[in-house]
Amino acid sequence: MLAMRAYQRGKHVDGVVNQNVLDQVGLSAAQVEDMYKTMAIANYEDRFVIPTTHREYAENAFNVRGGCGFSFGNGCSEGVTETSLFGSEKKRTIPIKVEA
User: Of 23, 79, 80, 86, whose CB is crowded by the most CB atoms within 10 A?
Assistant: First the structure.
């Protein structure tokens, strides 16, 4: 792939066809063009597409906006240390259930 990149760069950017690069790796110009077509300029339907999520699992993003903030890589949890990003200790809150 590095030889293909060097060959194509020389061809398109420098305007020089560098056959020496291909000879070093045992590829022909036709093979490199086929590789380039397959890997670099594939048709849209040939590209890998990340599947969308199921709508039944999606939540309303408006309610959870800004929920995680800075989390030191452990998701939206309380964290593993008592310090916060801003230097003071975290204040533990106790959730209170309101009964109607």
Answer: 79
Indicate the SS3 state at residue 83: strand
Q: Which of 8, 31, 7 is nearest to 19 (CA)?
A: 7
pLDDT in tens, 34-65: 988 888 766 777 666 666 766 666 666 666 66
93: nearest Cα among 81, 74, 78, 73: 78
Quote the CA–CA distance of 70 and 87 in Å, as a whole number.
13
How far, in Å, are 8, 68, 89 from residue 13 at the CA level? Answer: 8, 45, 56
Token representation of residue 54: 């199921």
Sign of CA dihedral 16, 22, 27, 28: positive
> How far apart are alpha carbons 11 and 46 in whole angstroms?
25
Output the pLDDT for position 31.
93
